[in-house]
Amino acid sequence: MVVDYHLAWLLAIVVGIVSSGVVASSWRLATDEELALRDLFDPLPSLMTPFRVAAIIISAPVIVLADAFWWLIERPLVGLPILAAGLVWSFMQGVFILSHVFGL
Questions:
Q1: Total tally of structural domains belonging to the chain
Q2: Angstrom distance (rounded) from CA 44 to CA 16
Q3: Is residue 16 in some structural domain?
Q4: What is the pLDDT of residues 38-52, one digit of tens each?
């Protein structure tokens, strides 16, 4: 029996993108601020900083993919590695969620 792993890889990528999008949207609804990678280096930390860092790390695939689409329009040779990095990060996050949360 031949097992096709392409759908499993695609499922992991989709789960990573959806989970990061849910976290980014929830943060936006709760705090009315948009997450960005530059916020990791906030010069004025507050009590929300640990939660902000956790939200940025979890929602990073969506942030990186949004930047990648912009770069694909402006400079495709710069946008492709950024797109690949976002998809790889999403894949790893999806594998973590599928294996630790759902036990698949």
A1: 1
A2: 30
A3: yes
A4: 888 888 888 888 999
Nearest to 25 by CA among 16, 33, 13, 15: 33
Does a structural domain hold residue 23?
A: yes
pTM here is 0.85
The phi, psi pair for 68, rounded to 5°, reads -65, -40
**What is the domain range of residue 75?**
6-101
**Any domain includes 67:** yes
For residue 1, being part of any structural domain is answered with: no
